[in-house]
Amino acid sequence: GESVGLHLPTLSVQEGDNSIINCAYSNSASDYFIWYKQESGKGPQFIIDIRSNMDKRQGQRVTVLLNKTVKHLSLQIAATQPGDSAVYFCAERGGNKLVFGAGTILRVKS
Amino acid sequence: GAVVSQHPSRVICKSGTSVKIECRSLDFQATTMFWYRQFPKQSLMLMATSNEGSKATYEQGVEKDKFLINHASLTLSTLTVTSAHPEDSSFYICSALALAQETQYFGPGTRLLVL
């Protein structure tokens, strides 16, 4: 079945600090992973992706780490800004479908 | 990134009426489109997968006769909520996948409120 999140965890960080958002995925056969950012009342926005044959990928201010041994994915945001405040979802690809994690609320304090 | 639009962005309707939501890929051809619903403070739940020119594949527990999906062209998919009831009130989001691409791009969502 699809992942449904209840009572989203919240990560509060000070502006300028680094943020680390974690995600545990379920299917060891998943070959592709994506992080999305969703602001209130909007659709998910692509941030960064990673294939299963990699363990790290860097973008602008963001880094995704993949640990297939423990089925763990993390998103690191450097120098977090108020505009980074949103809900962050990881997603794993199974077949042609994406399965979303529960989501984490990121709150940036100024 | 690729642009996906949805229309309307917000709709309020009376119980028993039907509501149609459009999803368009604006700058690419989407061989596959997906429809999700999202309740407040929850994750996205996949409702169905639609491929251009063929019948949609619905997830378990999603009534195909209630949520009609049509994917008539490579840039347009529609979701019709038939005989809507208050419990259908939700945020409906579509995404589109281009041929030979891996990333799904999401629309801005449609907020449905059934009175």
Structure description:
The complex is a heterodimer of chains A (110) and B (115). Chain A is mostly beta strands and 110 residues long. Chain A contains no helices and 10 strands. In chain A, the strands form 2 sheets. In chain A, strands 1, 3, 4, 8, 9 and 10 form a 6-stranded mixed β-sheet that branches. A 4-stranded antiparallel β-sheet of chain A has the order 2-7-6-5, with no helix packed on it. In chain A, a hairpin with a 4-residue loop joins β6 and β7 (72-77). Chain A is globular. The termini of chain A are far apart. Chain B has 115 residues and is mainly β. Chain B has no helices and 11 strands. Chain B has strands at 4-7, 10-13, 19-25, 30-38, 45-51, 57-58, 67-73, 76-81, 90-98, 105-106, 110-114. In chain B, the strands form 2 sheets. In chain B, strands 2, 4, 5, 6, 9, 10 and 11 form a 7-stranded mixed β-sheet that branches. Chain B has a 4-stranded antiparallel β-sheet with strand order 1-3-8-7, with no helix packed on it. The radius of gyration of chain B is 13 Å and the shape is globular. The N and C termini of chain B lie far apart (36 Å). The model of chain B has no long low-confidence stretch (mean pLDDT 93). The chains are: A mainly beta (110), B mainly beta (115). Chain A binds chain B through residues 1-8, 32, 34, 36, 41-46, 49, 89, 93, 96-103, and chain B through 1, 4, 6, 32, 34, 41-46, 49, 59-60, 91, 93, 95, 97, 102-109, 111.
